[in-house]
Write a structure and sequence with these properties.
The protein is of the alpha+beta class and 448 residues long. Helix content is 52%, strand content 15%. It folds into 3 domains: 153 residues, 2-Layer Sandwich (Beta-Lactamase), CATH 3.30.450; 83 residues, Orthogonal Bundle (Helix Hairpins), CATH 1.10.287; 144 residues, 2-Layer Sandwich (Heat Shock Protein 90), CATH 3.30.565.
Length: 448
């Protein structure tokens, strides 16, 4: 659940982060507070020792001690610890002449130099912080001590007082975090609900109003996917419609010719004529299917993913050689001429060959029988010219539309050849223009 849920991962991550932050803050607070408390109490001990060091030693006769603090005032003595502060005064020989009546009487004389030392006292295993200081006359030594446990307890009390409320607030913070994360992720839930409610064929984009900027890239990507899916579905519907429209007539003609063959009986002439028409119909249907499949594959390509460097001269010669037998059968001569040398092109040589072949096939099909087709290399690309009748201005404006054929055409065709030419040119960033030659005939020009 945690691995698959973004909400759970965020809650756990932020919860652990808050707990880790609290722990780090506690350690730092403890260290800083303990350091400041030690500095404060060291100062207090030193000041107290200095005050004791100016006591007149002449007033000290024999060993003496103050009354125990807890017995000084039996009532209303307040909160007081025995180890908060203790002192003792020794002679240079180590004889105790005065103590505080509490823990000071257990001090062990171990004076070596003025300053702070850590030591133990009688009847206790707890370490003490003791400052030693010689008196002003040099005859006595003052010891003022404080138990380390007292300092640590004081530091812990201060730190816990400050951090305990934050520890108590952690569950509240976690609850608020869960609520805020839930609200922050609510746009994703709304988008998921809208996606779940969509129909399979629905391609409308999702609204992007009032959405966080972090969610917008995801929604924009989804909308882009819907647009591409919609375009693909439209192409598929158009392909199905085009195929049904264009194949209806050839298939009907094939059916008629097949019926003629069946009804011809012993009339060989009628049967052979029907079989010839049947073959022509099959060839036309096959050509329509091939052209439709090529156009469908081209429509589904958004870019060239297998580009290579293509030399126009070599590609034109290769394509002309491939189509030359078909041209010779039609009695059409194909000539390659040069008016310039175009720059090499980055593209798909197979698709470019299909484009050139369709232009040559169009020129051979609609040019004069026994005529001539010229392929001319130019600085920017090439052009294909035939010596046919050309097309009128109205038809010229629609040349290249799918399934459009100028009226009055007697040659068979699907009206897809020049559409394929334009689609391949678009994929390669080329521009195709159609027009009539001044001396007569049709011209198709491809420029980079």
């Amino acid at each position: 659940m945690i691995r698959s849920s973004l909400r759970a991962r965020l809650i756990v991550s932020f919860g652990l982060l808050a707990l880790l932050t609290w722990c780090v803050a506690s350690v730092l607070a403890w260290d800083q507070t303990r350091s400041h408390i030690n500095e404060l109490f060291d100062t207090q001990q030193m000041v107290f020792a200095k005050r004791l060091s100016v006591i007149d030693p002449g007033h000290l006769r024999g060993e003496g001690q103050l009354r125990e603090t807890k017995k000084t005032v039996r009532k209303f003595r307040g909160e007081q610890d025995d180890d908060a502060l203790a002192f003792a005064i020794f002679t240079r020989n180590g004889d105790m002449v005065l103590n505080d009546g509490d823990n000071g009487r257990d001090f062990i004389f171990n004076y070596q130099h003025d300053g702070f030392v850590d030591a133990l006292i009688d009847d206790s295993n707890d370490p003490w912080r003791i400052v030693w200081l010689a008196s002003a006359d040099g005859e006595h030594v003052i010891a003022v001590g404080q138990e380390w446990e007292y300092r640590d307890d004081m530091a812990f009390a201060i730190v816990s007082t400050q951090l305990l409320p934050w520890l108590i607030a952690l569950p509240i913070l976690l609850v608020l975090m869960i609520v805020l994360i839930g609200r922050a992720l609510s746009p994703l839930r709304r988008i998921a609900g809208r996606l779940q409610a969509r129909r399979p064929d629905e391609t409308e984009t999702l609204e992007t109003d009032n959405l966080p900027s972090e969610v917008l890239p995801l929604l924009n990507a989804l909308n882009g996917l819907f647009i591409r899916t919609g375009a693909m579905l439209e192409r598929e519907r158009r392909f199905t419609s085009d195929a049904a429209h264009e194949l209806r007539s050839p298939l009907a003609a094939l059916k008629v010719q097949a019926e003629v063959v069946q009804l011809s009986g012993d009339d060989e002439h009628v049967r052979l004529h029907a079989l010839k028409n049947l073959t022509i119909g099959i060839d036309r249907a096959s050509r329509v299917v091939d052209q439709l499949l090529v156009l469908s594959r081209l429509d589904n390509r958004l870019a060239l993913d297998d580009a290579e460097t293509v030399q126009w001269d070599a590609l034109l010669q290769s394509t002309i050689a491939d189509i030359y037998p078909y041209a010779a059968q039609a009695g059409v001569e194909i000539a390659l001429k040069r008016e310039g040398e175009p720059a090499p092109l980055r593209g798909n040589s197979v698709l470019l060959s299909v484009m050139i072949r369709n232009l040559l096939d169009n020129a051979i099909r609609y040019g004069q029988a026994g005529g001539k087709t010229d392929v001319v290399l130019t600085v920017r690309g090439f052009r294909v010219e035939d010596d046919g009748p050309g097309v009128d201005a109205e038809a010229l404006a629609r040349i290249g539309e799918r399934f459009y054929r100028p009226p009055g055409q007697e040659k068979t065709g699907s009206g897809l050849g020049l559409s394929i030419v334009q689609r391949i040119a678009d994929l390669h960033g080329l521009q195709v223009t159609f027009g009539n030659r001044p001396q007569g005939g049709f011209r198709a020009e491809v420029n980079g």
